[in-house]
Amino acid sequence: MTVTTSPRTATEGTWALPLLTLAPLAAITLLTELSTPWLVIFWILCAAAALLVMTGWISVFRHGMRGAGAWGMCILVHAVWAWQLITVVRH
Q1: Which residue of 5, 28, 38, 52 could cross-link 18, Cys pair, CB 3.0 to 4.6 Å?
Q2: Are 13 and 52 in contact (CB under 8 A)?
Protein backbone atom coordinates (compact mmCIF):
# COMPACT_ATOMS: atom_id res chain seq x y z
CA MET A 1 0.00 0.00 0.00
CA THR A 2 1.37 3.40 -0.96
CA VAL A 3 1.15 6.33 1.43
CA THR A 4 0.45 9.58 -0.38
CA THR A 5 0.94 11.97 2.54
CA SER A 6 4.31 13.30 3.59
CA PRO A 7 5.57 12.08 6.96
CA ARG A 8 6.18 15.74 7.79
CA THR A 9 2.57 16.85 7.36
CA ALA A 10 1.15 19.38 9.78
CA THR A 11 -0.50 17.77 12.79
CA GLU A 12 -2.03 18.91 16.08
CA GLY A 13 1.49 19.53 17.37
CA THR A 14 2.03 22.14 14.68
CA TRP A 15 -0.61 24.32 16.31
CA ALA A 16 0.16 23.46 19.95
CA LEU A 17 3.01 25.93 20.42
CA PRO A 18 1.04 28.94 19.14
CA LEU A 19 -1.85 27.90 21.39
CA LEU A 20 0.48 27.68 24.39
CA THR A 21 1.78 31.14 23.53
CA LEU A 22 -1.78 32.47 23.47
CA ALA A 23 -2.67 30.99 26.88
CA PRO A 24 -0.90 33.74 28.87
CA LEU A 25 -2.62 36.32 26.68
CA ALA A 26 -5.99 34.99 27.72
CA ALA A 27 -4.93 35.16 31.38
CA ILE A 28 -3.68 38.73 30.93
CA THR A 29 -6.91 39.93 29.32
CA LEU A 30 -9.15 38.13 31.81
CA LEU A 31 -7.27 38.92 35.03
CA THR A 32 -5.73 42.36 34.55
CA GLU A 33 -6.82 45.84 33.55
CA LEU A 34 -4.35 45.93 30.62
CA SER A 35 -2.15 48.67 31.98
CA THR A 36 0.92 49.74 30.00
CA PRO A 37 3.29 46.98 31.21
CA TRP A 38 0.68 44.33 30.53
CA LEU A 39 0.02 45.75 27.07
CA VAL A 40 3.73 45.55 26.25
CA ILE A 41 3.82 41.91 27.36
CA PHE A 42 0.58 41.29 25.46
CA TRP A 43 1.93 42.64 22.17
CA ILE A 44 5.22 40.75 22.50
CA LEU A 45 3.38 37.47 23.06
CA CYS A 46 0.91 38.31 20.30
CA ALA A 47 3.77 38.87 17.84
CA ALA A 48 5.39 35.60 18.91
CA ALA A 49 2.08 33.78 18.39
CA ALA A 50 1.73 35.38 14.94
CA LEU A 51 5.19 34.14 13.95
CA LEU A 52 4.36 30.63 15.20
CA VAL A 53 1.05 30.61 13.32
CA MET A 54 2.85 31.76 10.17
CA THR A 55 5.35 28.93 10.63
CA GLY A 56 2.47 26.50 10.96
CA TRP A 57 0.91 27.72 7.74
CA ILE A 58 4.24 27.40 5.94
CA SER A 59 4.32 23.77 7.07
CA VAL A 60 0.77 23.27 5.82
CA PHE A 61 1.55 24.79 2.42
CA ARG A 62 4.72 22.73 2.01
CA HIS A 63 3.58 19.37 3.35
CA GLY A 64 -0.20 19.42 3.74
CA MET A 65 -2.39 18.84 6.79
CA ARG A 66 -3.20 15.46 8.28
CA GLY A 67 -6.50 14.73 9.97
CA ALA A 68 -9.51 16.54 11.33
CA GLY A 69 -7.81 17.03 14.69
CA ALA A 70 -5.12 19.16 13.08
CA TRP A 71 -7.75 21.31 11.37
CA GLY A 72 -9.63 21.61 14.66
CA MET A 73 -6.48 22.84 16.44
CA CYS A 74 -5.84 25.26 13.58
CA ILE A 75 -9.33 26.72 13.93
CA LEU A 76 -8.97 26.91 17.72
CA VAL A 77 -5.65 28.79 17.47
CA HIS A 78 -7.08 31.27 14.99
CA ALA A 79 -10.24 31.79 17.07
CA VAL A 80 -8.29 32.45 20.28
CA TRP A 81 -5.88 34.76 18.46
CA ALA A 82 -8.76 36.73 16.90
CA TRP A 83 -10.50 36.95 20.30
CA GLN A 84 -7.33 38.33 21.88
CA LEU A 85 -6.81 40.91 19.14
CA ILE A 86 -10.42 42.06 19.31
CA THR A 87 -10.20 42.32 23.11
CA VAL A 88 -7.08 44.48 23.09
CA VAL A 89 -8.22 46.69 20.21
CA ARG A 90 -11.52 47.39 21.99
CA HIS A 91 -9.58 48.36 25.11
Answers
A1: 52
A2: no
